[in-house]
Amino acid sequence: MGLLRLCWLLLGALAAGSAQLYFEKVRSVTLDICNSSAIIPCIVTNLILRRTNVTFVKWKLQGSEFFAYDGVVDKVTRNITFQSANLLDLSLLPQGTASLVLSREEALPGNYTCDVAESNREGDTIVELIRVSAPWFKPTEISFIIATMVVAVVLYFSQSAVVAMKFDMTLSKKIGLIFAGLIIIFLAVIGIVLFLPEGYSSSQRTGLALIVVPAFILVPLLYFLFTSVFEKQPLFAIILVALKAIGYIIAVAGFALCVLACPPKQGSVMIAGLAIIDIVAAIGLIYLIVIGGSSLKDHQPPRKAVEESLNDAKGVMLQ
């Protein structure tokens, strides 16, 4: 016991020489859209006792206390509006780390004061938390993503109109093409509404998914349009459908990489895939217009119609 008392006296004497606690100087920290929580640093550089049970920590926002940790009784006290507040790592407190963690929702911008006391020594430091608002993607990337989908829808309806006007197509097929286009528009509009607001949340990721993933519908639709024109698919038409499918695969691969990262690292890959879909659609539209200009419908009727005409002619001759 005598040795323990001597140690306490020596530590008290040392503490008396410097009753002020000092901190690593951090003027501000930034909370951007990619952070799910805020860590406000508070690191004491001259602790002596280095024991949790003689340490007391208080955190204030704009001078109002909202969090406290009492090491003597190992108790945390929080304001009701800061339920996520907690020390970064209680085991690091004896080494001087009294940093605070707050959820993104509760991390309000402003000046945070960290007040630490060790036995009869204390000190405080002020750190400003700055919230930065920004979209998940760059503005140019957002414009390209939306523009590619708008162009894709316009080209699809243009292709459908050319096929409907220049080639034989039943009313049910026309209604089916319109209905498919409306589904794409509906999903794309909802996706854009969810995607445009600033932030990196589940709603933004869902919005991007609704823009990119339904683009797959355009691949079989292009094939269907070609089958409405040709009885047997020419090689060029098959190549166009294959290229459109490749563009979709690239777009989805880029989307999968983007949705898992903030900021997105492969946005250009996704945009490139969407651009390929548009380029192939434009080539397909030109191809359908050229085929229509050659009056394929009038001069190249389906094989079944030709066979029926020949059978009728044979019947007349036999009579």
Descriptive account of the structure:
The structure is a single chain. The chain is of the alpha+beta class. The protein folds into two domains: 20-131, Immunoglobulin-like (Sandwich), CATH 2.60.40; 139-306. Helix content is 51%, strand content 16%. The chain has nine helices and nine strands. The strands form two sheets. A six-stranded mixed beta sheet has the order 1-9-8-3-4-5, with no helix packed on it. Strands 2-7-6 form a three-stranded antiparallel beta sheet, with no helix packed on it. The protein is rod-shaped and about 95 Å long.
Apparent shape: rod-shaped
Counting H and I runs of at least 4 residues, what is the number of helices? 9
User: Beta-strand level of the residues, as a percent range?
Assistant: 15-25%
Structural classification: alpha+beta
Into how many domains do the coordinates divide? 2
Query: How many E-type strands?
Result: 9
Order of helices and strands: HEEEEEEEEEHHHHHHHH
